[in-house]
Amino acid sequence: MKKNSLVMLASLASVLISGCSSLGKGITEAILEKQEAVDTRVCEVWGPEFSGIKPNVVESQGKMKVLMVHGVGDHKPGYATQFFEKLAKELDLTVTSRVHKDIQLNSPAYPDEPLGNLRIKRYLSKDKSQELILYELTWSDITAKEKEVLAYDNSGEHSFRRAEINDLMKRFSNDTGPDPIIYLGESRAKILTSFAQSFCWMTSTNWQELPTTSNAVCKTPKVSIIDKDQYAFFSHSLGSRITIDGMQRIAFTLGNDDPQYVRIKNSLRNKTMPIYMMSNQLPMLQLGRKLPEVRGQEDRYCRVGGDRYAQRMLTKTPIIAFSDPNDLLSYAIPQGFVEKYLDSRLCIDVTNININVAFVYDVFGLGKLANPMDAHIGYEMDDRVVALIAKGIGNKETAKIVNERCRWIETIN
User: Fold this and answer.
1) Helical residues (DSSP H) of 78-161, grouped into ranges
2) Which one of 37, 95, 138, 341 is at 20 to 30 Å from 208 when CA atoms are compared?
3) Cα–Cα distance between 356 and 323 in angstroms, integer?
């Protein structure tokens, strides 16, 4: 699907000029393929240096654990497999578990209601000295029933009336468009509970202790595991909003004086948990929402010596936000957004990455064009994105493709 819609549009222009449809299509495909052969796609990194997840994978004291949170649209468990395998290859993790482990998420707050699936996969280096455990959250079962109200529009009764490309786009719209709307309604609490359960499993159990399948409820994180292990999040589109909201909700939950929560809070305060956001939508998904209870107080919570430094949730939450300018659903995070709209207790700092994951084509002098769907879903398959997540930028481990293909604009205070 990568070039098909572009080929059709460009072919139409060629046909109008040449009067020969088959010749026009052939010329169009040849020109587009030639443009792809010379890859001039932009990659600009605006922010401080960052190391990616590799240092924590190499660290032998604990495990590196990552939670993947998908975005809009229906997903099935295993949706991130190709991305995970590319990441493992970049990190030279050549050994994997024979089986994955699946947890059917549940909560006492929603008895008899499924809250999605958590699939866990393990990758190791050849000598078993390095380990990465990947947790893949699939929450879209929660919204699937509500989207059934639009199922009629995808039926033959209506779809045959649309042009082929328009029908494809309408199906995409029906699958993805409702999710942000549904998230603002009653399902939001269920999705955030699904995230909280996933976070709990990640911070309470090691690989060897996990059953192959389970539908048990995770009770509480364990301080002994939090102290030892390192954590990060991968998110796509709406998944980024879910991750931020989920962490803010955990910060609120841990705000009371229950002794077990105090021990967990004390452990989390010493952690740095980066969030790698692909197709970032935080600015758009902030519209119409209440502001967080604690905001604009970074100096008090995040600076050593601040009067509320002991009340922070994390030492730091670096956000690495990937945005393709041709992705119609993606936005950079502007200066001042964190202070005004995000919880100060998370101690967030932002690196914006402006990157073309979709090819930009010159269509016969009519202008430049990129497929917006490729621009929205192409992040996880882009070698530069994978290399930046794995090894960061501005350090001695930075991948060759990043050094050669990405421009780094370092920002300082």
Assistant:
1) 81-90, 141-144, 156-159
2) 138
3) 8
Predicted confidence (pLDDT) per residue in 210-242, tens digit: 989 999 999 889 999 999 999 999 999 999 999
The answer to whether the CB of 239 falls within 8 A of the CB of 79 is no
Q: Are the CB atoms for 250 and 196 separated by under 8 Å?
A: yes
- Read off the tokens for 98: 């024979």
132 lies in the same domain as 253: yes
Would you say 211 and 101 are in contact if contact means Cβ atoms under 8 Å apart? yes
Exposed/middle/buried for residue 307 (C-beta within 10 Å: 0-12, 13-18, 19+)? exposed
Pair of tokens at residue 309: 């430094």
Q: Can you give the C-alpha Rg of the chain in angstroms? A: 23
Partner residues linked to 321 by β-bridges: 277, 352
Q: Helices 81-90 & 383-391, crossing angle to 10 degrees?
A: 60
Quick check: 119 and 102 in contact, CB under 8 A?
yes
| Cα–Cα distance measured from residue 305 to residue 299, given in angstroms and rounded to the nearest whole number | 9
Same domain, 54 and 129: yes
Q: Measure the CA–CA gap between 386 and 89, rounded to whole angstroms.
A: 10
Q: Which domain holds residue 352?
A: 41-409
List Cα–Cα distances, 76 to 6, 38, 99, 137, in angstroms.
Answer: 29, 35, 17, 10
How far apart, in Å, are the Cα atoms of 325 and each of 42, 57, 236?
Answer: 10, 31, 15
Statement to judge: residues 5 and 151 lie in one domain: no
Q: Which two tokens stand for residue 281?
A: 């939508």
Token couple for 40: 């001039």
How does strand 117-124 pair with strand 131-138?
antiparallel
Instruction: Dump pLDDT digits (tens) for 56-90.
Output: 999 768 899 999 999 988 899 999 999 999 999 99
Q: Of 248, 251, 343, 244, nearest to 297 (Cα)?
A: 343
Residues 4, 51: one domain?
Answer: no
Give this prediction's pTM: 0.86
Whether residue 397 sits in one domain with residue 270: yes
Main-chain dihedrals φ then ψ at residue 11, nearest 5 degrees: -65, -35
Cα dist from 326 to 13, 101, 319, 360, whole Å: 22, 37, 21, 9
Measured CA to CA, the distance from residue 51 to residue 226 in angstroms comes to 21
Kindly report the number of other CB atoms within 10 A of residue 404's CB atom.
9
How many domains does the chain fold into?
2
